[in-house]
Design brief:
It contains one helix and 16 strands. By secondary structure, the chain is mainly beta.
């Protein structure tokens, strides 16, 4: 009988190991203290001549506020360095410290969707839809956006889901990406590649959580993986799922293998 129990125990451990190897946890987009380091390049013309100016800044989440019954995270712009490079090759730089500028936009996250308030239409709108499946068309800031494909990128032993998307905009052939929990290569609130036609270029340089770097600009277009996720082309479970892991945490995605608590009963797959 002891041997039977040992075999069963080892079998459960193997299932849990396989489950851990195939599971890609959902990366929440909004987390207190989260930081996105970004840059903005734009044309300048001043008394010293003309050229381009690069402003390095960070966007930080800090604190909550309630609007229309919803709790939103507040965002701050914090510039750190301004570099001017003129046509004659000369440079000028200015270190900016301690300026926390409140951004007008507020963000909230629910059921794998990130909402922005106010949007350009004045009310709340969807900024990212991380519940969407490959082939779906979802409205992002009122613009129909197609989810071309979904894969994952492995960054420092963490897997991030990557959504290749294409907005339905005339003459816009840009195939941009969203990274779950990180955002767009142009920054957390820039969901498309289309920029204002004045030479401004936005760029997300790195993303930090709890003081640790979790993603950099070089990770956006790394070689992808598709064999380590089973949710592609499948609708994920809702946050109100009745399925839990052995630690009592709700399971937000469906998995083929593992040990779960479902409707109050232990289930082994």
């Amino acid at each position: 009988m002891k041997n039977v129990y040992c075999v069963f125990f080892l079998w459960i451990l193997c299932l849990n190991f396989l489950h851990a190897q195939t599971q890609t946890d959902y990366h929440a987009f909004l987390k207190e203290g989260k930081v996105w380091n970004c840059s903005l390049v734009e044309h300048i013309s001043d008394a010293s001549g003309s050229g381009q100016q690069t402003t390095y800044y960070r966007i930080q989440l800090s604190g909550d506020t309630i609007v229309n019954g919803h709790t939103y995270k507040k965002m701050y712009d914090i510039p750190s360095l301004i570099v001017k490079q003129y046509g004659d090759g000369s440079k000028d730089s200015l270190v900016v410290e301690g300026e926390m500028n409140v951004r007008q936009e507020l963000l909230r996250e629910e059921s794998y969707k990130v909402y922005i308030y106010p949007s350009f239409i004045g009310g709340e709108d969807v900024l990212y839809d991380f519940s969407a499946v490959a082939g779906a068309i979802t409205d992002i800031c009122t613009i129909p956006t197609e989810i071309l494909s979904i894969d994952t990128v492995n960054v420092n032993r963490q897997r991030f889901r990557r959504y290749h998307v294409k907005p339905d905009i005339v003459n816009d052939e840009y195939d941009c990406v969203w990274i779950e929990g990180v955002g767009h290569p142009g920054g957390p609130t820039r969901v498309w590649g289309a920029e204002v036609n004045d030479g401004r270029i936005y760029r997300l340089l790195s993303c930090y959580e709890d003081g640790k770097c979790i993603f950099t600009d070089g990770d956006f277009y790394k070689a992808g993986e598709t064999d380590c996720i089973d949710h592609v082309n499948k609708k994920p479970l809702t946050v109100h799922s009745s399925t839990y892991d052995l630690q009592g945490r709700p399971i937000l995605r469906s998995f083929k293998y593992g040990v779960f608590i479902q409707n109050g009963k232990k289930v082994v797959r």
